[in-house]
From TrEMBL:
Poorly processive, error-prone DNA polymerase involved in untargeted mutagenesis. Copies undamaged DNA at stalled replication forks, which arise in vivo from mismatched or misaligned primer ends. These misaligned primers can be extended by PolIV. Exhibits no 3'-5' exonuclease (proofreading) activity. May be involved in translesional synthesis, in conjunction with the beta clamp from PolIII. GO terms for cellular component: cytosol. It comes from the Bacteria. Binds 2 magnesium ions per subunit. Its main location: cytoplasm. This is DNA polymerase IV. The record marks 33 as: Substrate discrimination. Keywords: Cytoplasm, DNA damage, DNA repair, DNA replication, DNA-binding, DNA-directed DNA polymerase, Magnesium, Metal-binding, Mutator protein, Nucleotidyltransferase, Transferase. The lineage of its organism: Bacteria, Bacillati, Bacillota, Clostridia, Eubacteriales. The active site is at 131. It comes from Candidatus Desulfosporosinus infrequens.
Length: 435
């Protein structure tokens, strides 16, 4: 193997293999949030590339609440894990750079990334905010060798957008995804069916897509330690102790998966939410409402940017005694207006709150629909003027930065105008199956 991931002989072989069968690419951004933050900062005059030092994206750099969403390669040397608390990560590396998430930026980068891919194939499926599947079948008239085409795409993204990707190539989604997970960053890899034994079956069982800690532990207790062990195990026995999930991962271990690449122009979104663990106990209704407003600002902006309206608003809270509760309300007609969502969020909070000090608040919208048409009920308040203001504010923030304009109610309040940084799993879901 060369540094590029596939040597010249393999490229020629791959080109022959891809004839008369499906060719699927999986393109995955390396350390997406951190890479996008680094590129954005460098473009705006920052001299430090945070990809080259211990750094993470996630949580609040001041209060050190929240979790690690993504980490730099140097941060791995300190055993910092995705999903661990910012407090724990900071204890491992006192010099750790913590960057607050900026989902508006990430969605812009994701769109630019997808726009480039659409120039190479008409069938592109966005699987999450930082990864796409591409059906490259029957493109040999334009690109004789799909592996060479993968290098062209990879290098173009790096040169034009400033961040790196891994490209996995195979005959179906699962093998293409497994290929893209091999050595990183900035690589192209193949795992064709006759390469599984050499490239995939030798990997630890935990490396297989859809194998979590609990499943891996159960498999290892039966001496199934590699993907190859699982591939060669009796599927009837696997089903006995892992049920239908066992058959799914057994099929994946054998490279069996046949779902099509489904063209979509938007991410598959079920809901958009934001929550924050507050640095102090909130003991009055006014401050709680202000925190809800800061959360709603982020949620509503992401809702509009995604091109959706919502029919359901939910509010959750956690007291300083760790009591959790939530409440939701449905609209007759869908909305994307910040003030409309905020009004309902405050009403829901007032119905929930019993006067206890509040430590955590969350706002979420769901039951989403496209916003091409917006029809009001007979006695419903018309938010159209406020929606126009929202769009104007979104445009200013997109051009000049998130902090370029914000409500005066946040001045000297002790509450940030844009709070939180928790993206729900459902917003860009890693679905339970590729099917």
């Amino acid at each position: 193997m060369t540094d590029l991931g596939v040597d010249c002989n393999q490229k020629l072989i791959a080109g022959v293999k891809c004839m008369n069968q499906r060719v699927i690419f999986h393109i995955d951004v390396n350390s997406a949030y951190l890479s996008w933050e680094a590129v954005h900062r460098l473009q705006h005059g920052d001299l430090l590339d945070i990809r080259t030092v211990p750094a993470v994206v996630g949580g609040d750099p001041v209060t050190r609440h929240g979790i690690v969403l993504t980490k730099s390669i140097p941060a791995k040397k300190f055993d910092i894990q995705t999903g661990e608390s910012i407090f724990s990560a900071s204890a491992k590396c006192p010099a750790l750079i913590i960057v607050r998430p900026n989902y508006s930026l990430y969605m812009q980068c994701s769109k630019a990334f997808g726009d480039i891919l659409r120039e190479y194939s008409p069938i592109i499926e966005q699987y999450s905010i930082d990864e796409y599947f591409m059906d490259f079948t029957n493109m040999e008239r334009l690109y004789k060798d799909p592996v060479k085409a993968a290098y062209i795409i990879k290098d173009r993204i790096k040169n034009e957008l400033g961040f790196t990707v891994n490209v996995g190539i195979s005959t179906n989604k699962i093998l293409a995804k497994m290929a893209s997970e091999l050595k990183k960053p900035d690589k192209v890899h193949t795992i064709f069916p006759d390469e599984m034994a050499e490239k995939m079956w030798v990997l630890p069982i935990e490396e297989l897509f859809m194998i979590g800690r609990a499943t891996a532990k159960r498999l290892r207790s039966r001496a199934i330690t590699t993907i190859g062990d699982l591939a060669h195990y009796d599927p009837k026995i696997i089903k006995l102790f892992l049920k239908s999930h066992g058959l799914l991962v057994w099929n994946y271990a054998n490279g069996i998966e046949s779902s099509p690449v489904r063209e979509n122009r938007r991410p598959l979104i079920k809901g958009i939410g934001n929550s924050t663990t507050i640095a102090f106990d909130v003991e009055d209704r006014g401050t709680a409402h202000l925190v809800l407003l800061s959360l709603t600002e982020t949620v509503a902006a992401r809702l509009r940017q995604s091109g959706y309206c919502a029919r359901l608003v939910s509010v959750s809270l956690k007291t300083n005694g760790f009591y959790n509760c939530s409440h939701q309300r449905k609209f007759f007609s869908a909305i994307d207006c910040t003030n409309a969502i905020y009004k309902v969020a405050c009403e829901l909070f007032d119905e929930l709150w019993q006067g206890e000090p509040v430590r955590q608040l969350g706002v979420r919208v769901s039951e989403l629909c496209q916003n091409e048409f917006h029809q009001l009920a007979l006695f419903e308040k018309d938010y159209e003027k406020q929606r126009t203001v929202d769009r104007a504010v979104d445009a200013i923030r997109e051009r000049y930065g998130n902090g370029s304009v914000f409500r005066s109610s946040f001045l000297n309040s002790g509450v940030r105008f844009s709070t939180g940084g928790t993206m729900d799993d459902e917003e860009y879901p890693m679905m339970s199956s590729l099917l």
